[in-house]
Amino acid sequence: MTAPYRTLRWQGDAEGTLFLTDQTRLPEQYTEVEVTSAEALRDAICRLVVRGAPAIGVAAAWGMVLGTQSVRNGDREAFDRKLRDTGRLLTDSRPTAVNLSAAVNRMQTVADRHPDEPAADVHDLLYDQACRIQSEDEQMCRDIGRNGAFLLDSVQGVLTHCNAGALATAGDGTALSVIFAAAASGRRPHVYADETRPLLQGARLTAWELQQRRIDVTVICDSMAAQVMKEGRVQAVITGADRITARGDAANKIGTYGLAVLAKAHDIPFYIAAPSTTFDLTISAAGDIPIEQRPADEITHGFGRQTVPDGVRIYNPAFDVTPAELISAIVTERGVIDHPDAPSVQRHLQ
Ligand code: MRU
């Protein structure tokens, strides 16, 4: 069964608009927002209306189509300028997920490969490429689920962090796709979802998705994970990733690294599920992954009330990096990398 909701939906042809599920309103309300410009898309990405590494990559591809719509019937030079400006506008909206800049670069390459075509024709090619990026993402989600389901074979309880489901991709998700695939084949492990401070993607989004899909879920505060492991409630941890280095270190939502340390201490396997496009082979040191810093008010005034005294300093990194040594396996659409390291990552991707 695929998701009964669409995280991103393009309406029209090359001159269409993008509809996004407004993830800031879940779980209270399921609504869509219509995005008609690259500027509006940047704002939606920054505010996490659309979020999750693969989803913001696909959204950015559509952003390149949106950003150049108004100049498609003009001269090619102006079109190229607008395309580059749009790429810059979108690329730095969220720095950690490699999917975003990768999608922008892929779109830019389409234009670069057709230097002599009129703007309208290149714009049509950009539209085709955005369609391809979206459908590839859907397919990768399916394949990740199929490849990873066996990891949950003898698992009664599985812990996940943040949201790596349909809301984070164009398809069924990455980590949640593995859970959906396991459930579809009758295994149905009980899912523990970390609430995922400070923005509660686990409580608001993962729990909502699992409930929609009739998968048993229990939400816990992030600080409860150690106790849940100690009590023997989970036999696996699985999360998504925003960027993976050439040696297999994985950046994901803040708190993931801590979970991997806890899993190691309790002898529980820790899995990452991500498309192969999440690997950034230009980065071999975990410390070189750019970590997004988010606004202080997400911590001081989360969800409508002040929870920190005025004037107190806040540190709010949105992501951390789990070293490869703590990762039991990485599941991609190509298969599974057991105990990732530089040679196994290289073999997997070649
Ligand atoms: O800040 P977010 O909500 O975009 O963070 C999302 C995550 O950390 C996900 O786990 C990651 O992007 C993988 S989604 C398939």
Walk me through the structure:
There is one protein chain. It contains eleven helices and 13 strands. The model has no long low-confidence stretch (mean pLDDT 97). The chain has helices spanning 38-46, 53-67, 76-91, 98-112, 119-148, 175-184, 201-212, 225-230, 256-265, 297-300, 342-349; strands spanning 8-11, 17-21, 32-35, 157-160, 190-194, 217-220, 236-239, 243-244, 250-253, 270-273, 319-322, 329-332, 335-338. The chain is globular, with a radius of gyration of 20 Å. The two termini are 32 Å apart. The chain is an alpha/beta fold. Strands 6-5-4-7-10-12-13 form a seven-stranded mixed β-sheet, with helices on both faces. A three-stranded antiparallel β-sheet has the order 1-2-3, covered by helices on one side. The chain folds into two domains: 8-142, Up-down Bundle (Four Helix Bundle (Hemerythrin (Met), subunit A)), CATH 1.20.120.420; 145-349, Translation initiation factor eif-2b, domain 2 (Rossmann fold, 3-Layer(aba) Sandwich), CATH 3.40.50. 5-S-methyl-1-O-phosphono-5-thio-D-ribulose binds at residues 48, 51-54, 97, 162, 164, 168-169, 173-174, 201, 239-242, 252-253, 318. 5-S-methyl-1-O-phosphono-5-thio-D-ribulose (MRU) binds at residues 48, 51-54, 97, 162, 164, 168-169, 173-174, 201, 239-242, 252-253, 318.
